[in-house]
Amino acid sequence: MTFKVRSYAAHSASGRLGLFNFDRRSPRADDVVIEILYCGVCHSDLHNVRNDWGNANYPMVPGHEIIGRVVEVGPGVKRFKAGDRVGVGCMVDSCQHCAPCGKGWEQYCENGATYTYNATDPVDGSRTHGGYSEKIVVKQDFVLKVPDSLDLAGTAPLLCAGITTYSPLRHWKVGAGSKVAVVGLGGLGHMGLKLAKAMGAEVTLFSRSPGKEADARRLGADHIVISTDAAQMEDVAGQFDLIIDTVPYVHDVNPYVPTLAVGGTMVMVGYLGPLEDFNTGPLVFSRKALAGSLIGGIAETQEMLDFCGQHGITSDIEMIRIQDINEAYERLLNADVKYRFVIDMSSLKEEVAA
Q1: Which of 215, 221, 232, 272 has the greatest CB tally within 10 Å of its CB?
Q2: Is 215 exposed, middle or buried (0-12, 13-18, 19+ CB in 10 A)?
């Protein structure tokens, strides 16, 4: 039997999110039922709610940076028990038999990964709803263990912002002696600085405006380069093995390519869309590359959480109540957060009780 849950949902691209009751599916044999304690607010939540990508289905319950405790497990579940600290990220299923899934790259599933919200459950065809809610039911293979050493609220953004920057750092084999640059100091960028530094890299922040130096150094940057300053950009020509571009809107990437070392890679993790007037010449003549990366697979996400547990890494957050989500979205548009909003989901119970 299904069960009722309270949530906050969007009912249109232009409306405000508000209280919404819906039915969660009954747990299957391999499912974990999770009470949601905290949920991060991702820029993609805003894009989805406002139908910026053209695939929105309403009502929509956003949220894919989920932290909670297990309250029930199906009879086939072996990895979790009631009371466990767990997380759920951007995916809740995949085909698990295609070539990418076989490599642990469920995010690139050839048959389409099932996203945590605004997607269709492959078993019963129901809509998936995310973490702006009381509880969630997820297949055990897509549930993650949270190390005991990590603060639960600060861990929530690791499930998207953390893995989105960790995955390219690992894929391009960043370690001691690597020179890494991060473009943009936001939810993704601040995690990129922390993770690259913990891996032993020499880390640089590219920023369009001055005034972020103290914060950037606190987060792990060894150097700060103002990308609008031609002299500073010339000074770092040919330096970086990897550049992680976290900017979520259209922008000119041409100025960053000359700062790559021969054979270096610039990877896009924030912006989804066409790049106008991109010059491929510098790529060809120095075997440089422009690449993309999407979140990470489940095994890699667990590896990232364990790495963060070992190094004491969590996200810098501002805690909000669910009732403040609409105002948080407006602040997110203005980059007015350091560096990730996290919803205390106990506030949802308080509203209903009132």
Answers
A1: 221
A2: middle
- DSSP characters for 12-60? SSSSPPEEEEEEEPPP-TTEEEEEEEEEEE-HHHHHHHTTTTS---SSB
Hey, what are 93's tokens? 């299923």
Helix (H) and strand (E) counts in the chain = 11, 17
- CA proximity to 131, closest of 31, 15, 34: 34
Structure tokens given for 98: 């295609």
For residue 272, the model assigns a pLDDT of 87
Under 8 Å CB-to-CB from 203, ≥6 apart: which residues?
180, 181, 182, 193, 196, 197, 220, 221, 222, 223
- Cα(102)–Cα(188) distance, integer angstroms: 27
pLDDT at 352 (0 to 100): 57
Q: What share of the chain is helix, strand, coil (3-state, %, to 5)?
A: 30, 30, 40
Instruction: Give, in degrees to the nearest 5, the angle at Cα 303 between 70 and 187.
Output: 85
Displacement of CA 213 from its chain's centroid (Å)? 24
pTM of this structure: 0.95
Contacts of 234 (CB under 8 A, 6+ apart): none
Residue at token pair 């009879």: 75
Would you give the distance in Å from CA 77 to the centre of its chain?
Answer: 26
Distance, in Å, from the CA atom of 154 to the CA atom of 32, rounded to the nearest integer, reads 22
Please tell me the distance from the alpha carbon of residue 57 to that of residue 77, in angstroms, as a whole number: 31
Angstrom distance (rounded) from CA 329 to CA 17: 10
Q: What is the DSSP string of 169-228?
A: HHHTT--TT-EEEEE--SHHHHHHHHHHHHTT-EEEEEESSSS-HHHHHHHT-SEEEETT
What is the mean pLDDT of the segment spanning 180-186?
96
236-to-204, 228, 247, 348 alpha-carbon distances in Å:
10, 13, 20, 49
**Closest to 190 in 3D by CA, of 285, 313, 22:** 313
Radius of gyration for the alpha carbons in the chain, expressed in angstroms and rounded: 20
